[in-house]
């Protein structure tokens, strides 16, 4: 059986601690990667084009977007099994990502 604390018979202290923890998590999420925004204009256009040609050349589709807060690139591949999303942060080498993506979908003849 749980023991009630003598100074907090109704458990109000625990409820307050839970509320504070929830507020702190919310603030940490809001401030994560603050100041960093993904921007496709920073991607090398030739690498982006190569990735599009390679992916669509394998009868797949590629979609481009951002996370809701704009802090991360979202690249969705459809037609290669189950659709999936790749997430690339602006702090990562996005050009290397597109170079590797193109290589993954390029057929060696």
What features would you describe in this structure?
This protein has a three-stranded antiparallel β-sheet with strand order 1-2-3, covered by helices on one side. It has helices at 12-31, 45-56, 94-105; strands at residues 61-66, 73-79, 81-88. With 109 residues, the chain is α+β, with helices and mostly antiparallel strands. Residues 1-6 have low confidence and may be disordered. Helix 2 (45-56) packs parallel to helix 3. It has a domain at 40-105. The chain is elongated.
What is the strand and helix layout of this fold?
Blueprint: H1 12-31, H2 45-56, E1 61-66, E2 73-79, E3 81-88, H3 94-105
Antiparallel strand pairs: 1-2, 2-3
Helix pairs in contact: 2-3
